[in-house]
Amino acid sequence: MTKYYKDYYWKDGIPYGMEPIEEIAKTDSYKIIMDPYKKRISIESYLKGQFSTVLYDSILLDFRQLKQPEQTAWQKIPITETPDLMVCLIRDHDDRVLFIETHVFVNNLCRECRVSTPQSTPLSVHKMLYKNLGDPFDGVILYDHNEHPVMYKRYEFNENEQQFTNLLEEEWNMLEKPPLHLLKKT
User: Fold this and answer.
1) pLDDT tens, 36-55?
2) Considering 15, 31, 59, which residue would you say is the last residue of a domain?
3) Structural domain of residue 147, as residue ranges?
4) CA-based radius of gyration for the chain
5) Are the CB atoms for 79 and 103 separated by under 8 Å?
6) What mean pLDDT value characterizes the chain?
7) How far apart are CA 17 and CA 43, in angstroms?
8) Among residues 113, 149, 131, which one has the least CA distance to residue 141?
9) Residue 185: which pLDDT band, with cuts at 50, 70 and 90?
10) In 79, 99, 133, 186, which residue has its Cα 20 to 30 A from 119's Cα atom?
11) Taking a C-beta distance cutoff of 8 angstroms, is the pair 43, 51 a contact?
């Protein structure tokens, strides 16, 4: 039986529904679809019972793959570069374009990385935070296309090299942790 939910959260790269809804025609809702083995997962959005859009499909980008200790090697090829923006193609080992990344810079620091398919379908956004820019911590928050947090990583930041160094904390359970103040948009 298909269930609809008022909202959802991410845990270990998998979406879970919150507050099941019986009468979807009266409210906006989400439908999470996955096979019993969780090989393919998707999230659909409904506006008062009417299909709106597919928000996530693991066949396009599976967040669980980002947790693997030995991640797949991808090649990043810049195609557009300005002081405030860099657009890159991400290619796999077969030289196939998998994603387009759009990096947005402020004060020479990357603040956001938008990931989309080669056909320009939005998939996710990484937001980079820096204490020296007034953020609550140094690190990265990964959001799905619907701006729900998927995971976050807190790092040490090397001021001289202008980059993250040691990983201090990594969290993939977005219901129980992290403190909500860390997830406010920048």
Assistant:
1) 899 999 999 999 999 999 99
2) 59
3) 65-183
4) 18
5) no
6) 90
7) 10
8) 149
9) very low
10) 186
11) no
